[in-house]
Write a structure and sequence with these properties.
The protein is an alpha+beta fold. The protein has helices at 5-15, 20-39, 85-91; strands at residues 44-46, 50-57, 60-63, 70-73, 76-83. The chain has 3 helices and 5 strands; from the N terminus they run H-H-E-E-E-E-E-H. The chain starts with a helix and ends with a helix.
């Protein structure tokens, strides 16, 4: 099962005894902070969870597989995630 924003909002609502709208606003604000940080090209580290890194990719040669036409792919930024050791241990059931 995929965890959705709705599921997370409901959990925040129940765990913190908040109204649904307050829980939703907390969730939205948290995601907005993450998006703005990454959009600005900054890395984001959450202790015990992991680190989101923004990496710059240079322009490179590419090929359209449908036409075999060569082209130059423009530079771009990509986001990667590296989980913390604690999270990795939890995923691998190590205590």
């Amino acid at each position: 099962m995929t965890l959705t924003k709705t599921n997370i909002t409901e959990t925040i609502e129940q765990e913190l005894d908040l109204s649904r709208s307050d829980a939703y606003n907390i969730m939205e604000e948290f995601l907005e902070i993450i998006k703005e940080t990454i959009e600005n090209g900054e890395d984001l580290m959450i202790s015990g969870f992991g680190k989101f890194c923004v990496n710059e990719k240079k322009a490179r040669k590419g090929r359209n597989p449908a036409t075999n036409e060569e082209m130059i792919l423009p530079p771009r930024r990509v986001v990667t995630f590296k989980c913390s050791g604690k999270l990795r241990d939890l995923v691998n059931n190590k205590n």
